[in-house]
Amino acid sequence: MYKKQLVILGGGFAGVILAQKLLCTRMAYDVTLVDKNNYFSFTPMIVETVSGTNNPYNIVQPLRQIFNHKINIVKETVRGVDLDRKLVRLQKGTLHYDILIMTLGSIVEYYGIPGAKKYSLPLRTVENGIEMRRRIINAFETGKSGPDHTFIVIGGGPTGVELAGEVEGLISNELRKQFPRVKSKVILVEKNNQMLVHSEPYISKKATEILKRKNIELLLNRKVIEIKKDSIVLDTGTIRTTNVFWAAGMRASEVRIVPEPKKDKMNRIIVDEQFKIPGHKDVYVIGDMASYIDPRIKKPFHMAAQVAEKEAFHLAKQLCGGYTKPFVFKEQGFLVSIGRFDGVASMLGIKFTGFPAWFAWRTIYLFKLRSLRKKIRVAYDWTISLFYERDTSEI
Ligand SMILES: Cc1cc2nc3c(=O)[nH]c(=O)nc-3n(C[C@H](O)[C@H](O)[C@H](O)COP(=O)(O)OP(=O)(O)OC[C@H]3O[C@@H](n4cnc5c(N)ncnc54)[C@H](O)[C@@H]3O)c2cc1C
After folding, report:
1. Whose C-alpha in 73, 80, 160, 309 is 20 to 30 A from the C-alpha of 177?
2. Would you state the pLDDT for residue 48?
């Protein structure tokens, strides 16, 4: 019997959860998952690979081990989609589909700032986390005083705030002990007049207090004009540095789709209330790549793992049982860890900060990891890093 070819592009939060849910229902689809990597990345914990409180292998999971031959896995880069001919264009060859779900996530947005892509390092992948850590350690081992020991994080959103906290944690907990004469500083640059601008004022205020307490220099209301090899030019002046870390923006992943669908200003594909591209009844987009207008607030959701997960659950139900209720998203909470033992949180209407927020961050994300083996490994590494020094090998 011919089974319909259901192709999922992207093995991230949305793609993996959707494929798992479709399996549970034993649908009459032949499911193929395409990703350029052979593993799933648990992005919320990437930041911990910078400070070394988490091992990079703990937060990735091979797709073939997740699915154990139950679906087809294709490790390939998607180049484009021909909606009229129902074809996915891969780097090598093509793939036919009857039903297509696009979940290719997002990429870094540099806003066309000169030098930003060339001279800053983004925090998007596990490899980025490892490279950042290596650069920081190398700066202490071989760098010259001044520019090499000035670490600048661009972007005061959740990723930038967490990153500044982890960079400072690596320096103050380990490197400063090993290099007591080195004078270093961590600077966080934000273009708005407050950190975590999209969160509640109390949370933003508390995050600012914690960052200041950790001696992270905060530059608010500053625009990045240019990044050079050994400096960064802000609208208020130039700072000499060779270490700029970019956490300032995202846009939806780019693949060539013909005919081209409508997109929003973040390059996300505009979808209808069933996550379909209007005019193409068998093509769905979810996760960071989709611009689904929330009927209540008349705006698209922000790019977040919790949105991608919920959209995947909803679409799986829709594909299995003809579930047609519009998607409604209720934020589960907002959690930001800021270095060791600190953080801010807002959950179920309760706001809390400091150690309880940090503990909640760890507990909730540990629970959210998708494999028991990884949960045990992460819990073990966290425990070890509480009592022993972190490894500062420059790998
Ligand atoms: C450092 C960091 C920390 C984050 N922390 C949080 C957090 O704490 N809480 C939260 O809610 N959200 C967080 N996010 C956001 C969250 O990761 C995303 O919103 C979520 O991953 C979106 O899910 P997705 O399935 O749409 O995309 P992704 O999970 O990014 O998956 C996309 C997949 O597509 C693959 N892919 C992309 N392009 C191609 C191509 N051309 N060909 C083949 N494969 C391709 C990628 O390899 C990837 O596996 C964080 C993101 C980052 C980068």
Report:
1. 160
2. 96
Residue 293: C-alpha distances to residues 273, 280, 290 (Å): 8, 18, 9
| Domain span(s) for CATH 3.50.50.60 in the chain | 4-36+76-108+250-321
Question: Any idea how long the chain is?
Answer: 395
**Angle between the 372-387 and 355-368 helix axes, to the nearest 10 degrees?**
150
Residue 364 structure tokens: 């909730």
CATH 3.50.50.100 fits 116-248+333-387, yes or no: yes
Please tell me the distance between residue 37's alpha carbon and the centre of ligand 1 in angstroms.
Answer: 12
Structure-block tokens of residue 311: 């959209």
Where the chain has pLDDT below 50, the residues are none
pLDDT number for residue 395: 84
Beta-carbon count within 10 A of 102 CB: 30
User: Could you tell which of 104, 196, 307 is best to mutate to test the pocket of ligand 1, judged by most ligand atoms within 8 Å of the CB?
Assistant: 104
Q: Which residues are CB-contacts of 112 (< 8 A; sequence separation ≥ 6)?
A: none
Q: Whose CA is nearest to atom 30 of ligand 1?
A: 105
Q: According to the model, what pLDDT value does residue 129 have?
A: 97
Which residue has the CA at smallest separation from atom 4 of ligand 1?
Answer: 44
Q: What are 29's two structure tokens?
A: 């689809």
Q: Which residues lie with the beta carbon below 6 Å from any ligand 1 atom?
A: 10-15, 34-37, 43-44, 46-47, 77-78, 103-105, 123-124, 159, 253, 255, 287-289, 303-306, 308
